[in-house]
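Need the bound structure for nicotinamide-adenine-dinucleotide, inputs here:
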Amino acid sequence: MIIQPKVRGFICVTAHPTGCAAHIQQQIDYVQHKGSPSGMPKRVLVIGASTGYGLASRIVPAFAGGAATLGIFFERPSENGKPASAGWYNSCAFEKAAHAKGLYAKSINGDAYSEAIKQQTIETIREDLGTVDLVVYSLASPRRTHPTTGVTCKSVLKPIGSSFTAKTVDTDRGVVSDISIEPANEQEIADTVSVMGGEDWEMWISALSEAGVLAPGAKTVAYSYIGPDLTWAIYRNGTIGRAKEDLEASAKRIHNSLSGLGGAAYVSVNKALVTQASSAIPVVPLYISLLYKIMKERGLHEGCIEQVQRLFAERLYNGASPQLDDAGRIRIDDWEMRPEIQAAVAALWPSVTTENLPQISDIVGYREEFLRLFGFGLPGIAYDAEVDPAVPLPCASA
Ligand code: NAD
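Answer from helper R.:
Posting the output first, comments after.
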């Protein structure tokens, strides 16, 4: 079939297999070009490994450090002649490239919040790897079914306390408008914390620890975001921010629980980037479009792969304990949060309109990056040619 992008609001419902493979290869090339820092982990479990920050967290240890990787994700294979999800094609391409280099790479496609997937992961580690020395927790999900209560909670992106009105952009149509969002109620706050907070990360680490599949000195890292006060009402002070506070509190408990093993748990605060998860957040895509323009002009722009490469080489595996902020977090959002970058974005914010959006923001770059997430717009790919949408995952764990 011929696969073209079909954008519906903030998602693209098609994905291109060879385009996704080319996107993976670009990221592998970047990592290999940067070289291999010493002391990289050798056996890595990535939970949420198929797109965005988690995918980059799989590529970096594999292709910079020769690590064996086990990836967990929830993706849709091709069915009835329809394209698979981008994360499926990414993972197929990742495994193929890793195997071609002689690296162990296996994947488990299923609900990471469930007990069954945790047990399947433990069995796979036991049989194939013995132990893991790094666990990256990079889930972004709109819902979670709790493994013990069976209750399904949905996360919401809402302010807390009072309603919030701000500029936002329809990235597909390029229209800037005001959006007003009513505050979340207590149930919505609790549900968002259940989905995106730290409970599941703690459940993963305690299950892995009890099963004895964490190596001495094992590290674990989960990702968070802070950003500027422009976005605080909807992000840091909103429902998702409450979940991130919970994640940060979990990091401290997990850190203590790993002390017997000489291990460590960290939250890394990352840069705002175009991913499937971030494109769903109101206001944030407009901020990202302005941020990209400023950071690209100053040669400071990074995508997921550059962020994670720097996180591993300069923070997690720099030969010493990573430098932490006052709240005990790793900061790899340091370039985004430089005062001169934030001042430049804040200066543009009040004046941005539908009319001047193409000039004063990088909306074009935003859209290109969004489409690349689904394998579109990559150089050298014949998008008008027939392609088989059914691509097998080479090494899915049974
Ligand atoms: P993403 O949407 O690109 O990736 C989400 C991953 O989670 C995918 O691999 C998906 O398959 C997996 N997943 C979702 N539900 C699952 C389930 N039930 N079981 C198994 N796997 C499941 O998201 P992302 O933007 O890379 O976000 C990853 C983390 O990084 C999140 O914690 C997010 O808050 C954080 N973060 C993102 C940004 C950003 O700007 N994108 C910035 C800082 C921090």
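Comments: The chain has a mean pLDDT of 96. Residues 48-54, 72-75, 87, 111-113, 138-141, 223-225, 270, 272-273, 275-278 surround nicotinamide-adenine-dinucleotide (CB under 6 Å).
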